[in-house]
Amino acid sequence: MLSADTRQRLLIAVAAATRFGSGILLGTGLAFYLGRNDASALVVGLVTTAYFLGMTVFSPFWGAVADVTGRRRTVLVATGLGATLALAPLFLFSGVWVPILSRGLYAVFAVGFAPVMLAVVSARGGDEDRGRSLGFFNAARATGFTGGQLAVGMLLGLLAPEGVYSVIVAVSLLSTLVVVFLDDSVAPKPDSQPTVGELLAEVRRRLLPAVDDRDHLRRNGLWMLYVALALRNGTVMGLMGLMPVYLPETLGISEFLMGTLLAINPAGQMVFMLLFGRVADAWGRKPLVVVGMVGSGLFALVAAAATLFSGPLRLVIAGLSFVVIAAAFSAMTTGALAFIGDVAPDERESELMGLRSTAKGIGGVFGPVVIGGLAGVVGYAAAFAVGSSMAFLAAALAGWKLVESREGVVFPGREPAPVDD
User: Fold this and answer.
1) What is the CATH number of the domain that holds 154?
2) In this protein, which residues make up the domain named Major facilitator superfamily (MFS) profile (predicted)?
3) What pTM, to 2 d.p., does this model score?
């Protein structure tokens, strides 16, 4: 018989795997269909931009709603149902802009999952095991990405678009059903439930804090972490949004091999997330953030270098780029999440986890537009190389401004401080 703790861990793992699996099926599938219909690199990139625009606005919103009401499970169920219903336009309408608009609408709700679930997972881990707990969650998330990428390579060749969309709906609905059984008793409960007006006013106050209510954003340089995450995501999401076109058209890779290559990244994360979760607890958060951002820049350079080779070696170099980003993303994400969990006030943890998604979303909005636009002028390889500069700048900013948050760990040359002015 499974213990209560094991059952909850299993529910979290299944919910994460299916939520992120459905998202990657949708994003890769829509980008592939647009590319096959001769859409420009800029238009294909807008599939990613639409998602991250929704993330930028609504991820911290749902996190703040969960914090204010104390009803994390309710928020997870409601946003899951909304995300599933947002896929309806794909079955009812056609045209180039329908996939972009549908993915944006999907994002409005689907992005509520990460900040709320991350707050649950962070609280379950506590101060001592936060890194391990977050590493477990991210490994489950990576499992969903891996399955989604492997599946999409096969589904695109086997099913008509409507069949692929039906699979996405089923996986999204499964994630929603699973979180119904989640134990959200770890969420801080308010003294009384706010009215709708009070809820909106408090959410607005949290998302747009007054000048004298921003100390929590300055703790240990937290605000600069968000800036660095936006820049880094501009590089990586700019590339990832174009991969469903770059791999088959520029590198000449088949649909099945495309799905296999794209799966290397999340498959690697399943291992690296668990590893770096332990590293974050033992060695601190800041080194992982900085190294992960440097690795994100290297990913862009290695991906661009694949065009310099031919035959099997081209495939190997392309595959290597995804190994690099798997390690880089795992290091950066585990370090950043643990950092936020360390410095966030308990009553604002979901909100600040959501603000992390907003920062990433900003990069996801401008990155695909910038790199997609460049690719149409100078080609994919040159655009990827230029785009790497954003990730390297992010690493420099993180190394300069972040103050290690793990108690007992001091990054060379800096002392932990409650507030970094």
Assistant:
1) 1.20.1250.20
2) 1-406
3) 0.72
Q: Give me the half-sphere count of Cα atoms (radius 13 Å) on the Cβ side of residue 168.
A: 34
* Dist CA 5 CA 127 (whole Å): 18
| Domain extent at residue 126 | 1-208
Structure tokens at 316: 């190997």
Which residue matches tokens 């959200």? 184
Q: Are residues 218 and 79 in the same domain?
A: no
Angle at 169 between CA 163 and CA 175, to 5 degrees: 140
| 251-261: average pLDDT | 87
Are 94 and 157 contained in the same domain? yes
Reading the block at residue 308, the tokens are: 């310099």
Residues 6+ apart with CB under 8 A from 61: 112, 203, 207, 354
Please tell me whether residues 138 and 232 are part of one structural domain.
no
Q: How many domains, in total, are found in the chain?
A: 2
Look at residues 36, 138, 123, 25 and name the one whose alpha carbon lies nearest to residue 350. 123
Q: Examine the fold and report which residue of 184, 208, 232 is the final residue of a domain before the chain moves on.
A: 208
The answer to whether the beta carbons of residues 84 and 29 sit under 8 Å apart is no
Bin 209: left if φ > 0, else alpha if -120 < ψ < 50, else beta.
beta
What pLDDT does 67 receive? 80
Question: Is residue 419 a part of any domain in this protein?
Answer: no
End position of a domain, from candidates 187, 208, 229? 208
Count Cβ atoms within 10 A of the Cβ of residue 389 and give its class: 0-12 exposed, 13-18 middle, 19 or more buried.
Answer: middle
User: How confident is the model at residue 207, as a pLDDT?
Assistant: 61
pLDDT in tens, 283-315: 778 888 999 999 999 999 999 999 999 888 999
Clarify whether residues 105 and 122 are in a common domain: yes
Within a domain: residue 186? Answer: yes
Can you spell out the DSSP letters for 291-351?
Answer: HHHHHHHHHHHHHHHGGG--HHHHHHHHHHHHHHHHHHHHHHHHHHHHHHHHHS-GGGHHH
